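Handout, section B. The chain below has 514 residues.
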Amino acid sequence: MRGTKLQPVRSQRLFAAWLTLLVLCILQLPGAVRGTAAESEPFNEKRLALVVGISDYLTVPDLENTVRDGALIADTLRSLRFDVIEEYNLGLNGFRALLDRFEFEAETADVAIVYFAGHGVEVGGQNFLIPADSTAASRKEVAQTSVSLQDILGAVDKARQLRIVILDSCRNDPFARDGNLEIVTLDQPATVNGLAPPSPERGTLVAFAAKDGATALDGDGRNSPFALAISETLKSSDLEIGLAFRQVRDTVLKATNNFQEPHTYGSLSGEPYFLAGRKQAINTLEAKERKNAWSELEVDQEKQLAVLAGKGDIRALKGLAYMRLNPNEERYDPAAAVALLQKAADEGDPEAMFELARLYEQGIGVDQDIERALKLFHLSADKDFADAINDLGFLHFQGGLGVPRDPNKAMAYFARAADLRHPEAMFNFAALIDDGTVEGRDLDDAAAYLYQSLRTGNEQVLDLLSERPTMFKQGTRRALQKKLTERAFYDGAIDGQFGPQTQRGLRRAYGISE
């Protein structure tokens, strides 16, 4: 990605630091937490899951299988090397406290999954999961006594690679009248509870046990058909995660004689991911190599991807495009990749717009067209795709691609990208604030962005803060020590000196246990 070109902006001290990374500020999201065990564990990732099952309700009908379903999924995820937080029959306060704890822990996880089995209802276009002690007597009272889907999404949103929410909560509506069913929908205002939807490039998949407006079966045995399908499918070796949820859908349809059809909403990123099997090694590659790794899909899975692409599935279109952009593959065909990305872009996908912009900029698979590239960068940025926003910041600062040089616009773009948790943008924007070039920002702001950049798992950020802390002013370093202290990562002096104790605090904040 282009978010690597800050040399005209930075002072000499940062310029020298960037040169040590081959190209100025070559910071690329590593995608995996690599601690001290990375060399000995080929699939070293931090996987975190929260499993909640509720069967015993205070005022609404009890459910039969939900606790057993939760236990089944918890055991399945543990077998896949997840650290599982498992709780049952939680009340509202306990549920909210658990989500707060999970959200903090998930910041340093590569993968975060939440599974909920219990009653869930829709009220005014929003989804709510009902805790055991809810006293709601009608739909109107649900919002005040339940956990919203937005709360759940917020709990997984900062995980580094993969974010999945699984809701087995479409059973009979406890507040139904005249045979109404529970209704689920993702048509929610972006400002509910002050949380924004997950950034599109970060990708969060929400899997419902049944399509919106439909009900799910509890099953005739000890577990629901949906829980059984999830458990069986996620353990499948070398099955790409997006195709896994397609297989869950097919399995449940077959088990219920086409009565119940699970459905997924949202989207995963354009990089393949594997929960089991040898192909887990792909998960730890850098972003570009991971996209190339679509070529390593099994033949039957590639055929499934092609079928889905033929039906307009955006992620499938991108996966096939990345296969054709891999120069090491016989199927290398950048013109075909352009066509596939164009279809995804036409459907409004910001990642496809960004990738297509880069191809037009470089003239790969298509005649070079700078005007078209810039238009696509802007379209992607308008959808809050942080890579595109960060690129536009550099173009406006440097005057690249014929864009008039405008430092004020550049700063606005850098700020937007940083606020969307773009790792490189957060670090670079912190450096700009530290230099005093960003009006209205102080050293506390610089430290806040450094802390958040560290939490995203960017190894180069950790290396720079550990090895070259004096590139930042002492006031920024002290403010960062305060941030580490607030989260119990550091308990030493707030002196701006990054000695062994501060170094340990930085590693702990990054996610390395010692």
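Note. The chain has three domains: 1-30+384-514, 47-285, 286-379. Compare this with the example in section A.
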